[in-house]
Design goal:
Helix content is 48%, strand content 13%. The protein is built from eight helices and seven strands. It binds nicotinamide-adenine-dinucleotide (NAD).
Length: 261
């Protein structure tokens, strides 16, 4: 696999925790320059990344706001002069039956999990086209390919991002094989987003955290093991390699067998 991302500029959304932070660490360790946003403990994420590579830029943009997304892309260009790789990772979850689903949460989830990627993609593509090279990786979910009850907004947004991925891939494929767009569809990965769901389950069923974790995995993921965020990062690295130049518009599941059932 010819894989040289040394000095490539990577914009990753939501890299202050979980999957995004792990991808940022793995890419930084390969010599990539990282620009990222995200809430929570940004300082800690910056420190962790700077220990790996000093070319790090944190931008405090809220992905619910289109103008703040423009600022995210503009500041990345100001500092690094180009964007080679865009990883749309940020995402939020809310669990509720559809008839009770709060309108505010619906709008938030569609904004962060879907519309924000439309904005980053429309803003980053011209920079990739200028250099005739680019990789867009959308962190979707198995919920982009199959539904679960009580996750209507998340499932709708994740199905949407796979459609967006395919549309972008088609547009690029007819022009240049140097710019690709693909989605990664993980099953359960142990991150803060999932820990909140395990805690809610343990409280709802009055069972221990460990029992709730086992039940959560057993329902959907035949391996009964969490996906490692580092494995997702390595799949993303592959999609950035020259060997993956003909992988275009894929929705690549990595899910312990979830979707094989
Ligand atoms: P996480 O909660 O650990 O991280 C989410 C990141 O998004 C954080 O950095 C957070 O600050 C950021 N974010 C949220 N709203 C934002 C906003 N409005 N503006 C800017 N940043 C914002 O979650 P994670 O589990 O690492 O999830 C990352 C991605 O992977 C998400 O898109 C999620 O849907 C997807 N995913 C996760 C799993 C899993 O099991 N954890 C499975 C499939 C897909």
């Amino acid at each position: 696999m010819h894989n040289n991302i040394n000095n490539k500029v990577v914009l990753i959304t939501g890299a202050t925790s979980g999957i995004g932070l792990e991808i940022a660490k793995v890419f930084a360790s390969q010599g990539a320059k990282i620009a990222f946003n995200g809430f929570g403990n940004a300082e800690e994420a910056v420190k962790a990344l700077e220990q790996i590579n000093s070319d790090i830029l944190y931008i405090n943009s809220d992905l619910e706001q289109a103008n703040e997304i423009e600022n995210l892309v503009n500041q990345t260009i100001e500092k690094f002069s180009k964007i080679d790789i865009l990883i749309n990772n940020a995402g939020i979850q809310h669990v509720s039956p559809l008839q009770d689903f709060s309108i505010e949460m619906w709008n938030k989830i569609i904004a962060v999990n879907l519309s924000a990627s439309f904005h980053t993609m429309r803003l980053c593509l011209p920079h990739m086209q200028k250099n005739n090279w680019g990789r867009i990786i959308n962190i979707a979910s198995v919920h982009g390919l199959a539904a679960s009850a009580n996750k209507s907004a998340y499932v709708a947004a994740k199905h949407g991002i796979i459609g967006l991925t395919k549309a972008a891939a088609l547009e690029q494929a007819s022009v240049s094989s140097n710019i690709t767009c693909n989605a990664i569809c993980p099953g359960w990965v142990k991150t803060p987003l999932v820990e909140k769901q395990i805690i809610a389950k343990s409280q709802h069923l009055n069972i221990s955290f460990e029992e709730a974790k086992y039940q959560l995995l057993s329902e959907k993921q035949p391996s009964k093991e969490f996906i490692e965020a580092a494995d997702l990062a390595n799949l993303a690295l592959f999609l950035c390699s020259e060997s993956a130049k003909q992988v275009q518009g894929a929705a690549w599941n990595i899910d312990g067998g979830w979707l094989a059932q």
